[in-house]
Amino acid sequence: MMVLISYDVSTGDEKGRKRLRKVAKECQNHAQRVQNSVFEADLDYSAFMKLKNRLISIIDEEKDSLRFYYLGNNWERRIEHIGAKNTYDPEGVIIL
User: Fold this and answer.
1) What whole-number distance in Å separates Cα of residue 34 and Cα of residue 28?
2) What is the pLDDT of residues 24-43, one digit of tens each?
3) Spatial distance between the Cα atoms of 27 and 83, rounded to a whole number of angstroms
4) What's the rounded Cα separation, in Å, for the pair 22 and 70?
5) Measured between alpha carbons, how far is 5 from 7 in angstroms, rounded to an integer?
6) Distance separating alpha carbons of residues 52 and 29, to the nearest angstrom
7) Quick check: 27 and 67 in contact, CB under 8 A?
8) What's the predicted TM-score (pTM) here?
9) What are the strands of the beta sheet with 65-72, ordered from one edge?
């Protein structure tokens, strides 16, 4: 299932900057960054729930926010990219 994850973490103090780094790293470990605070994750339900719960445990719900957009399994027709950044094929080969 394809899920779009976006976040806004308050960076007004060192704790906020630390949370931001943790959220970004957790997303990078499981999803593809498509904009600064936006990731696309093509995960099975169990893996997504683990990621979601991990992200929720990192943020401060009084200061930060997470948004999850569930695009489902037929996501290809729901995403349109226009602009300078190169896109990627989530179902293609990823070379590390």
Assistant:
1) 11
2) 999 999 999 988 999 999 99
3) 23
4) 22
5) 7
6) 13
7) no
8) 0.78
9) 32-35, 38-42, 2-8, 65-72
Question: How many helices (H) does the chain have, and how many strands (E)?
Answer: 2, 4
Which H/E stretch holds residue 62?
A: none
Contact indicator for 30, 43 with CB cutoff of 8 Å: yes
The closest alpha carbon to 79, from 34, 31, 49, belongs to: 34
Report the distance separating Cα 67 and Cα 3, nearest Å: 10
What residues form DSSP beta bridges with 7?
A: 66
pLDDT tens string 81-90: 667 766 655 5
Parallel, antiparallel, or unpaired for β 32-35 and 38-42? antiparallel
Residue with tokens 């948004």: 67
**59 within 8 A of 9, measured Cβ to Cβ:** yes
